[in-house]
Amino acid sequence: MYKVIVVDPISEEGLKSLIDHKDFQVDINTNLNEEELTQIISNYDALIVRSQTQITPNILSSAKNLRVIARAGVGVDNIDVDCATKQGILVINAPDGNTISATEHSMAMILAMARNIPEAHRSLQSGEWDRKTYRGTELYQKTLGVIGAGRIGLGVAKRAQSFGMNILAFDPYLSSDDAKRLEITRATVEEIAEQSDFITVHTPLTPKTKGLINEDFFNLAKPNLQIINVARGGIIDEEALIKALDDGKIAKAALDVYNNEPANNTPLTQHDKIIVTPHLGASTIEAQEKVAVSVANEIIDIFEHNNVLHAVNAPQMSGEVEAELRPFVELSRTTGEIGIQLFDKGPRELKIKYHGEIALDDTSIITRQLVKGVLQQDLGDHVNLINALVLLNEQGVTYQIEKNSKKHGFSNYIELELINKEHSIRIGSTVLNGYGPRIVKINDYPVDFKPEKHMLFIYHTDRPGIVGKMGQILGEHNINIASMHLGRHSIGGEALMILSIDTIASEETISDLYAIDGFKSIHKADINSTFET
Ligand SMILES: NC(=O)c1ccc[n+]([C@@H]2O[C@H](COP(=O)([O-])OP(=O)(O)OC[C@H]3O[C@@H](n4cnc5c(N)ncnc54)[C@H](O)[C@@H]3O)[C@@H](O)[C@H]2O)c1
Ligand SMILES: O=C(O)CC[C@@H](O)C(=O)O
After folding, report:
1. Residue 74 Cα, ligand 2 centroid: separation in angstroms?
2. What is the best residue among 91, 99, 152, 156 to mutate for testing ligand 1's pocket, by most ligand atoms within 8 Å of CB?
3. Phi then psi for 519, rounded to 5 degrees?
4. Which of 38, 134, 141, 471 is the most exposed place for a label (fewest CB within 10 A)?
């Protein structure tokens, strides 16, 4: 039974698939403080949050059994993702469940601000009938600057176009083809500041976007500018905003999000030129149900089928790429495991080469599998696909990736090289159509074997009788040989023998094998064959 804790208010209707599932126990407790959550978190396999609960390193350090943190929404800034990654905890979100709601809330804010709806409402309720003070501005033929043209930004742009607005957008990932197709003009942040009548912000909060709209920006702005933020507090510098409004540099603002939430104690919520809502962008019945359904189904899929759709801190495979890469996944981890066992000391560097069709795919999952295989021998089960690269870095091991779509004898070929000052070892692998995974190269030896659970790699001099002696010694130790492969450079020269054996070879067996004249070095490789993320 997997245990899941829900710590923020989330639609129970949307979580139904998880709550009703026989393999999951769902505890809902939305009143926990940091200390209380820290005390109980080790009981849980999965944690579901919205934007309220801060998932701190303190909580995570006690989360000994936690495999997944699911954010029922988009932004994950309330979760210490770096810390979760280091601990190998997968973070997922529900990126599109609340897109329409946040888009519509943005439009509502623009319209409410342009037409003074909150102020006029308050005035009429207080007994006034003031039509002059609350005269508004049309959106028609005005310029809307969109900063961050992702799901919500483009949704707002599309709706604003139907109001007859011209759209300027700044987003490093907005291509000129897409902009043309969407009838949007790409612009710099400065051009947006200078030319816009309205501005809407839809980026995540990152070190680059924090304070992106600041005093310098407001100094360039038109005095009639009306600006909204339904993305994240901090993208607009709050002090600079108040100053710009007070100095008449811009006209109005509408905010749904704040540096500190709940925003009970800030001049922003009391300012005459700012209209405010308490982080309501995603607060609709539909959005809350959609994000809850999304995280509930994904948690089931992760625990039951190892399928990750919306990973924030891990690569994900989908559709065609998944089908194409799946056979390489286990082979890569096994290659890493063999590599580290053939390489006596710790490597300082890994070189990973992808040749052939595979080089055209996103191979990050394969890279992580290779690294996981390398690290698992020393670090154990703690290593997973989420923390593999972070742990590699912590071990002081660098890695390089080389991709070449030209064939290297095989339609797909992956090579792992482990390197330190003294030596290096290269292991080439492929998946052969109809034959499955194969190791096809060890250093310069061309080989062809399917990796098995227990293997011996013996470097020796090629000479008659050596195989018989070896068979006899293994027989004396009650070890059955399942298969044997030989790679050699020349008759009587240096050679490599690879044995797949049915049981693990003891140190005593290895030492007896060393007595064979011509055996130079013997390496055991025992593979942990279960596939998991
Ligand atoms: N107020 C709410 O309740 C609410 C609801 C949903 C989402 N949000 C927030 O809205 C934001 C956008 O959500 P989304 O679903 O559209 O995300 P998205 O990932 O689809 O879009 C974000 C866009 O920002 C762009 N971007 C990133 N850094 C940038 C930079 N430095 N300059 C310009 N563009 C940059 C990205 O390229 C991307 O296109 C997120 O911060 C999210 O947390 C708020
Ligand atoms: O959960 C919420 O209500 C806020 C969600 C929103 O800010 C998001 O980033 O998805």
Report:
1. 6
2. 152
3. -80, 120
4. 141
Which residues are identified as catalytic? 232, 261, 279
Topology of domain 314-448 in CATH is: 60s Ribosomal Protein L30; Chain: A; (3.30.1330)
Q: Which two tokens stand for residue 201?
A: 């912000």
CB 287 within 8 A of CB 295: no
Q: Where are the domains of the chain?
A: 2-96+285-305, 99-276, 314-448, 452-533
* 452-533: CATH topology: Alpha-Beta Plaits (3.30.70)
> What is the atom index within ligand 1 of the atom nearest the CA of 101?
5
Q: Are 167 and 161 in contact (CB under 8 A)?
A: yes
Please give the radius of gyration of the chain, using alpha carbons only, rounded to the nearest integer.
Answer: 30
* ipTM tops the 0.95 cut: yes
* Nearest alpha carbon to residue 352 among 401, 283, 307, 394: 401
CATH architecture of 2-96+285-305: 3-Layer(aba) Sandwich (3.40)
Q: What is the pLDDT along the chain (533 residues), one digit of tens a residue?
A: 999 999 999 999 999 999 999 999 999 999 999 999 999 999 999 999 999 999 999 999 999 999 999 999 999 999 999 999 999 999 999 999 999 999 999 999 999 999 999 999 999 999 999 999 999 999 999 999 999 999 999 999 999 999 999 999 999 989 999 999 999 999 999 999 999 999 999 999 998 999 999 999 999 999 999 999 999 999 999 999 999 999 999 999 999 999 999 999 999 999 999 999 999 999 999 999 999 999 999 999 999 988 888 999 987 655 556 667 778 988 999 999 999 999 977 899 999 999 999 999 889 989 999 999 999 988 888 898 899 999 999 999 999 999 999 887 899 999 999 999 989 999 999 999 888 899 999 999 999 999 999 999 999 998 888 899 999 999 999 999 999 998 888 888 889 999 999 999 999 999 999 999 999 999 999 997 543 33
* Total-model pTM: 0.84
The secondary structure element, H or E, covering residue 253 is strand 252-255
Mark residue 381 as left, alpha or beta (left: phi above 0; alpha: psi -120 to 50; beta: remaining): alpha
